[in-house]
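Appendix B. Raw example, untouched.
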Amino acid sequence: MSPKTKNIPYHIGFIADGNRRWARAKGLPTLEGHRQGYDKLKKIGRWCKDRGIKVATFWVFSTDNWNRSKKEVDYLMKLLKRALNSKEVGQIKKEGIRIRVIGRMKDLAKPLQEAIKKAEESTKNNKEGTIVFAINYGGRAEITDGIKKIIRKKIPAEKITEKTVNQNLWTADLPYPDLIIRTSGEQRLSGFLMWAGAYTELYFCKNHWPDFSEKDLDKALKDYSHRQRRFGK
């Protein structure tokens, strides 16, 4: 990264888009695109740590992705379970990184839920940084579940504030993202971090997720460093 790059974001969100398009462009099976995408996620996590970024959130499976073929969904679930059960978690723990998972956990298979709980529990006291996996995540689902949680707590309507809503979301313990990067040329958020990202800076990269490089990350960080964040002021 260029030494001239300043104002590093504390929290970056990644919409990891383009695994399937990358695979099709190379004449490879769709599942190979997802495997390459997982390998790239691991690299980007390290790149972020090296650059002083404290929180990196990766959207790896959305609430809408259940509409894909059973074969593809099953592969993705196995890939996620393997990632959360692998030696990678042990390495992440050694590096002092905390693992967090956000999303609608109750819809996931029990073995995956157990792997998530184990990974979170084993790294919960780490302070060097946080990697967040958004699994079965959707912005509308997050807000809907937050409203239900508030109702269950029987909080009177006149007592509900923005702080109340925020405290009942999946992202309640996380800082708001400073920058969201989406790959593969799409220029929309698709509901990613809908509440938390209200004032987040956006950056869109044309490269598919498996092709996202250190140079692409540094370009996004340099672009971010020139932004003026006013937060409505």
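End of appendix B.
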